[in-house]
């Protein structure tokens, strides 16, 4: 048996999310189906770094699985891709140590959130950008980002639908926002993210960018430890799981 | 009655083409359905500058129709948009003379064809770019474009499935190809285009770009007046009806 680690991209538009569920098409199901076919019907289970929600995309999701098939890494990439739909792409395949674990060994993740900030919508980007037609105060948003960085209890920025039992303290090592032409790109790096955390952060930052709240309100929101104090959850289509880190 | 002219954008991915047909969802059907709703059930027929095929997009398709509703142009834009799906966008509405005709009065059209020329595919562009992973000789393609410009019988660049009865002489006033980072953009302007003409031109130019044929072969192909002499038809997803001209 060999343990195989794959870096994958997916367009989440036509998926009910990453993780297998009773109803709806999922990314995990498509990959496991392809692997099971490669293994002549023997069911293969994959483990991902974490799940993503319906409509959320990935540029660098990481999964691992064990296989009895002994082929080269580039052959894995090709063989698996042939069996996958056009909205999932295997960007990298690597043979890893038998104790590598795509979920338990992550040391950090990067998420990006893309806003299309044109006055008129761009219908060709509607599945991969959140359209915000109003002007945004980039200086205020950038300042607000500095209050996000650091180790905080992010209870206010976690969906109340979470099943998490542990604490909600996370370390955000980098939070930024850049405007390039009509696009606004939010980048967040940290040791872990709570359920809907990036989307709630973006919803809150967009409120600040509209002048509804001052940048400093982020501090108050963090202190409040109350989801109702933060902004609304930005829609899924702007969100990309960009990169997963391992030691 | 007032004659209304609309400039529309559509993402052709989920359409069987522009024109109403017995099977499949079409752009014309969606717009007529919206207009019929606005007119409380009175069927409204729209006339477009021309049709586009399944999977082909539009940035500047033009349609006209007559209406008994008397509202301002910006109100038309808003009211109609509310009733349309997210993959059709009304970019401009104008009241026009009662003898304006979106099809008969066109004086020219511009089409663009977009190629994504990265080594690895970009799954997020799969519906709006044709992925060509190999290197292309841009100088050869640019030279070949010069042979396309002018007034020629384009029989070799017209699908044999055409129902056209008239001649196949068309004047191409501009044919160009530019590479910007990983994107290759073909632009064609002319007084009219035959069935699949742009897609056959692009397929032929990509062959030249790969070194399979010299640029001068365009002249021979035009002279041959035989569809079998030109290259293959490039796929629909890279093609955009960009602009329609009227005097």
From TrEMBL, chains A, B:
Record: active site: 53 (nucleophile)
Keyword tRNA processing: yes
Positions contributing to substrate binding: 111
Key words of the record: Isomerase, tRNA processing
Gene3D superfamilies: Pseudouridine synthase I, catalytic domain, C-terminal subdomain (3.30.70.660), Pseudouridine synthase I, catalytic domain, N-terminal subdomain (3.30.70.580)
Pseudouridine synthase I TruA alpha/beta domain mapped to chain residues: 9-103, 144-247
Taxonomy, superkingdom: Bacteria
Function: Formation of pseudouridine at positions 38, 39 and 40 in the anticodon stem and loop of transfer RNAs.
Family: Belongs to the tRNA pseudouridine synthase TruA family.
Quaternary context: Homodimer.
PANTHER family attached to this UniProt entry: PSEUDOURIDYLATE SYNTHASE (PTHR11142), TRNA PSEUDOURIDINE SYNTHASE-LIKE 1 (PTHR11142:SF0)
Name of protein: tRNA pseudouridine synthase A
Gene from which the chain derives: truA
